Amino acid sequence: MRKQSDEDLMRAFAGGSIEAFEELYSRHRTALYRYVLRKAGDTSTANDLYQGAWEKVIRGRNKYRRSFPFRAWLYRVTYNHVMDYYRQARPAAETHPDELASEIPGPDKQTEIDIRILRLKRAIRRLPPEQKDVLLLKLESGLSLDEIAAVSGMKRETVKSRLRYAVDKLKKSLREAELRSNHER
Amino acid sequence: MNADLPANSADENLESDLENIRSVLGERDSGQPPQLLDTAVLNTARRELEDTGKTKRGRFSLRWLSAFATASVMILALGILVQQEQESVPVSNGDAEATLLQESAGKESAAESPQKRSMMKDHDQAPVTAASRSNEFKLQETASEAEQLNEEADETLPPEQWLQQILLLKSTQQEARLAEELAAFTAVYPDYPLPPELGD
Predict the structure, then answer these.
(1) Which residues contact B20 (CB under 8 A, 6 or more apart)?
(2) Nearest Cα residue to A121 out of A28, A42, A32
(3) For A131, which of A22, A148, A166, B35 could close a Cys bridge (C-beta 3.0–4.6 Å)?
(4) pLDDT tens per residue, range B149-195
(5) ∠A60-A26-B23 over CA atoms, to 5°?
(6) Which of A9, A18, A112, A114 to mutate to test the interface with B (most CBs of B within 10 A)?
(7) What is the C-alpha separation between A57 and A35, in angstroms, rounded?
(8) Phi and psi dihedrals of B93, rounded to 5?
(9) ipTM surpassing 0.90
(10) pTM (2 decimals)?
(11) Which residues numbered 126-165 in A keep a CB inside 8 Å of some CB on B?
(12) Domain boundaries defined on chain A
């Protein structure tokens, strides 16, 4: 049996099918949650934002137009919801570079992988917001450059250059962190 | 901004770097939303659909009521229109005309006819509307009948017959009519001897 597209499922949901929504939700829940989690930084805020974004999708189901790719629309709704949250409620919350320090487990439990992940997360947090947005959309949602441009309202070339800057900064941060670590040993 | 970068190799490097980052982040990070959050979102969707269903049912009943009310008003308006049309059609029925003539003949006397005629003339000058056209038609019929009666009354009677009528007026004590008729008689027949009953 042919798998239904996201767009068909969304239309079926708008027509009153809860099963269609359950299928859509199961397809996108993990990626969307990870995107929000990376964006928010802490689980509590991420949970609120994630739930709020899905509520907007549910309530806006009749506004969705089939001509627009569902995944791009989903991330656009979420992106706007997250941006509104940081604009209104917590203007300084997004840039908190030392927040992750509390997440680092004790030295005896640390493994190489843990350290690498935490360094990467910290480096992502330190990115300028506009670069971080683009990077997270690419990493977590798997959207194409065109779709990210549609979600964020930027030009495709701007998206691409910000992505490149973000990746370069991450690589540089990780190299520096590794050098510091080696030096301390 | 990136015009100096060779497009293909730069894109490939970017994709490879992103893939490395993705793999590192995904090694330990399950990133699954909590079970409670899943339940909350799905319940919201169910609730929304239920609410929409109720609203749709409510809207349907209102729509039905509204359509019914509109149809009723239209039927009523159509009925009134048809009734008005029927009332404004000129009376062409023979029975109706006969009835009208009988009524006018019974009510109108020969002496009242000139007044009636003037009323008719006044009425003729009034603005003509669709509704008044039928009344005008009836009045014209009445006027012609009254005119005919008046002409009969205007014919000068022989003195004996006239005097008989005058005596009848006296016996029925119609003093005003009596004086009028007597004056008219003496004007027409100045030398005709009056009976002793009218001599006074």
Answers:
(1) none
(2) A42
(3) A166
(4) 555 555 678 888 888 888 888 888 888 888 888 888 888 888 888 88
(5) 115
(6) A18
(7) 16
(8) -75, 135
(9) no
(10) 0.52
(11) 138-139, 157-158, 160-161, 163-164
(12) 1-94, 97-185
